[in-house]
Amino acid sequence: MITELDELKSAWSALDRRLIRQHAISFAQLRDQRLARTRRGLRPLVLGQIVLMAFGVVMLLLGVATWTNHRGGGGLLVAGVLLHLFGVITIIAGGSTLGLVARIDYAAPVLHIQRQLLRLRRWYIASGAVVGLPWWLLWIAFIMCLGQVDLWASAPGFVLINGAIGVVGLLATWWLHRWLHRPGREAMAQRLDDGAAGRSIVRAQAELDDLARFEQE
Amino acid sequence: MSATDSDDPFTALLEQHLPIVRKVAGAYGADASDRQDLMQEIAMQLWKAWPRYDRTRPFATWMYRIALNVGISSLRTRMRRSGSMRSLQDLAVEPAAEDARRPELDEHLEQLRRVIDRLGALDRALLILYLDDRPQREIGEVLGLTETNVATKIARLKQRVRERLEVIERETT
């Protein structure tokens, strides 16, 4: 039992080591908590990608069913092949996103996880564009396959007008994207990117940003 | 002096003397989150005061003065709000490897914690400087006291700590 102030000196010199350890334990707890939240936060994204892949399978089956029944040529062959291709692309996009989510190494340093999440975000935005933008035109092929009607033969005007609208829409989207990414519009572009990245990824990034800040403190 | 000129020496000195900041925050903060806040506040106040730091004077003395002022004012605020002067409430963690062979250390750290808890804000500052083996002249500079006054206050502190250790011993047995 200590009875004098001077005898507390050895405990005082050990205090710093204990505080460092305590800080490390606090950080480890915070890290576990935040990473569990990050992982949980990505679940809606995983679910979304499974639904997307299922949608891709439906498109693929509809496309295959259409072009195999109209091998002779015409609008339905083209529409079927387009839908088949779109289905494959959609399945690949969803599968790759799921692959990137699965590859996130939660045991790695925070900076590494942040990089993996950034890669996932970029991929998700790009694949979203690949899967979403074709619908400016693809919807024509889709209704042709769904109704098994060759609109190119029966109503070429409808296909041409709506095809032209689709091309204009595609060009307008491309122009808007470029306009938003010009200097001075960073905040607006960031909001658009955040919207395209989806809430799951944005939330997961925020959790990791907090963790990285605590680590640097 | 440009910002770049002053940034690096400040960061290097802060890192070099981080145990001072950590221990002051330990003696005045209630728990890990309180300590973290105090460490940040101390670092911020040091940064603010850095342009006025006289490079001919020892950095540690200057740092103690600022860190202890932040600690004292934080303890007083906490006292006003919650009436609590307790510190190091979460210190009972598994010891580091080099301390594991000293089983008595846990008991000593607990005694230290209880001694600190029973001291007022200014006595804590004196205790920190004394336990850190700072010379009386430097303690005087940090606390704004004469050397003779420091010697008297240390003698009184030793007496108070002795009495408190006796009380702690009675409470324990």
Tell me the fraction of residues in β-strands of chain A, as a range: under 5%
Number of helices of chain A: 8
Instruction: Give the averaged pLDDT of chain A, no decimals.
Output: 88
Strand segment tally of chain B: 0
* Low-confidence sequence ranges of chain B: 1-6
Largest sheet of chain A: none
Shape of chain B: globular
Shape of chain A: elongated
Oligomer: heterodimer
Low-confidence segments of chain A, given as residue ranges, are none
Q: Total number of β-strand segments of chain A?
A: 0
CA gyration radius of chain B, whole angstroms: 17 Å
Q: What is the structural class of chain B?
A: mainly alpha
Q: How many strands, which pairing sense, and closed or not: the largest β-sheet of chain B?
A: none
SSE pattern of chain A, N- to C-terminal: HHHHHHHH
What's the mean pLDDT score of chain B?
83
Helix content of chain B: over 70%
- The structural class of chain A is mainly alpha
Distance between the ends of chain A: 37 Å
End-to-end distance of chain B: 60 Å
Q: Rg of chain A, please?
A: 27 Å
